Amino acid sequence: MYVQPTFAADGAYPETAAVAVSLAVRRLTLSDFRCYAALRLDVPEGPVVLAGPNGAGKTNILEALSFLIPGRGLRRARLSEAARRDPGEDAAPRPRPWAVAATVAGPDGETDVGTGLAAGEAGDAEKRLVHVDGEAQRTQAVLSEHVTLQWLTPQMDRLFLDGASARRRFLDRLVYGRDPAHAGRVGGYEQAMRERLRLLTARGAADDAWVSALESTMAERGVAIAAA
After folding, report:
1. If DSSP codes are grouped into helix, strand and coil, which group holds residue 124?
2. How far apart are CA 191 and CA 189, in angstroms?
3. Rounded to whole angstroms, what are the CA distances from 49 to 53, 61, 75?
4. From its phi and psi, is residue 61 left (phi > 0), alpha (psi between -120 and 50) or beta?
5. Both 11 and 120 in a single domain?
6. Does 69 share its domain with 166?
7. Residue 178 is part of which domain span?
8. What DSSP line would sit under 81-101, residue for residue?
């Protein structure tokens, strides 16, 4: 849940700040996600603490929430890695489809958002599905128009000491909250970058015109990302 304190007119933090809740999850439903075959949580108002022994599935619930925004979640997992497995079951050639759905209360009322792994045949590329209020969406970027999340985990304790890639992802998630279109720009930049690398490392001469077009896309998206 995200809260925004109300500051005094001069910008000072008041002794007793009024706090307005701008986003809250009212219901969370999981299907074949991690250790949960099925789960429904009706969430009360106010802060929520998840408690239980190791291995109870607390972090899995937090990871499910993290999939309500664009990206790979707090564990940086592939979609197939989040699919539930039976005890002793190895990674299947065709993972179970899974789903995470939530009812989110915001300033404009409640919105139902959902995402998950689409069913497919063995060897098919992973496909992420996104629905908002029951309507299928073309890209996951639309999630940032309805949900804003941020997290810090023990694995991120060296966030500002180690490599820059983790810091960029952290800052991107901060920007999503202010500018939902930022997710689409980042996704477009990364897709063009991967395609350029694939062309340059493939056997045979790369198509110069194609590479040039991809580099132009990267430059345009890069400038927009920096401006955000």
Report:
1. coil
2. 5
3. 13, 12, 20
4. alpha
5. yes
6. no
7. 150-228
8. GGB---TT----SSPPP-EEE
**b/e per residue 78-117 (b: at least 16 CB within 10 A):** ebbbbbbeeeeeeeeeebbbbbbbbbbbeeeeeebbbbbb
The secondary element (H helix, E strand) that includes residue 199 is: helix 182-201
Q: What is the rounded distance in angstroms from the CA atom of residue 215 to the CA atom of residue 207? A: 12
Dihedral of the alpha carbons of 226, 223, 2, 82, in degrees to the nearest 10: -110
Domains: count for the chain: 2
Asked whether residue 64 falls in the same domain as residue 104, the answer is yes
Q: What is the CATH number of the domain that holds 55?
A: 3.40.50.300
Residue 146 near residue 111 (C-beta atoms within 8 A)? yes
Same-domain check for residues 143 and 211: no
Of residues 160 and 104, the one with the higher pLDDT is: 104
Q: Answer yes or no: do 117 and 216 share one domain.
A: no
Q: What is the pLDDT of residues 155-192, one digit of tens each?
A: 888 888 888 888 888 888 888 777 878 888 888 899 99
- Record the pTM: 0.70
